[in-house]
From TrEMBL:
It comes from Roseibium marinum. This is 5-formyltetrahydrofolate cyclo-ligase. It catalyses: (6S)-5-formyl-5,6,7,8-tetrahydrofolate + ATP = (6R)-5,10-methenyltetrahydrofolate + ADP + phosphate. One of its GO terms (biological process) is folic acid-containing compound biosynthetic process. Its cofactor is Mg(2+). InterPro entries: FTHF_cligase, FTHF_cligase-like_sf, NagB/RpiA_transferase-like.
Length: 192
């Protein structure tokens, strides 16, 4: 059983508040704001032809698929995460590929797709602050994946969210990895 710390409890409150603001956006607003991410694709500090891991949106998350398509057209190979042990694995996403349940309510390429090591993670999140700290969904999937990927080379971690998901301050814990930057409908913001 996981022991809850005061910081974890504070994060849980902030998570609920940020997700409530996200949920309050109308469906049309979510679509328009998601589409606008692609307008800012050139602002992302991506190495040429870097493998980019996107994500399949769930619930009322920002939809990264228009941005991912823009990055694919710029020559970036794409992949999607699949929930696995001990951490997420990333499988190549080809246009028109059949998708399967990938855990946590998401979709991803099936077991026949090649596993790859992304250089860039486009990450979903519940909340973020101006220092680049993020609040995930509390399961630690990205924290463990980032720790493993960082052992094998450089990694850019870019959060994707709606601007309304920003919080004043995330009570970051030792295991939390700060974001390289955040992309919202307002554009890209670098951290650090």
């Amino acid at each position: 059983m996981k022991v809850s710390s005061p910081r974890a409890a504070e994060k849980d409150v902030l998570r609920k508040e940020a997700l409530a603001r996200r949920a309050a956006l109308s469906g049309v607003d979510r679509i328009e704001k998601s589409l606008s991410l692609a307008d800012h694709a050139d602002e992302l500090p991506l190495p040429e032809a870097a493998v980019v891991a996107g994500f399949w949106p769930i619930r009322d998350e920002v939809d990264p698929r228009p941005l991912m398509d823009a990055l694919r057209r710029k020559g970036h190979p794409l992949c999607l995460p699949v929930v696995a042990e001990p951490h997420l694995i990333f499988r190549t996403l080809e246009r028109g590929a059949e998708l399967a349940a990938a855990g946590f309510g998401t979709m991803g390429p099936g077991p026949g797709a090649a596993a790859v090591r992304p250089q860039v993670l486009l990450m979903p999140l519940a909340g973020f602050d101006a220092a680049g700290n993020r609040i995930g969904y509390g399961k630690g999937h990205y924290d463990t994946a980032i720790a493993a990927l960082e052992k094998t080379g450089p990694l850019l971690c870019i959060g994707l969210a709606f601007a309304v998901q920003e919080v004043d301050r995330v009570p970051a814990e030792e295991h939390d990895k700060p974001l390289t930057g955040i992309l919202t409908e307002q554009g890209y913001r670098a951290f650090g």
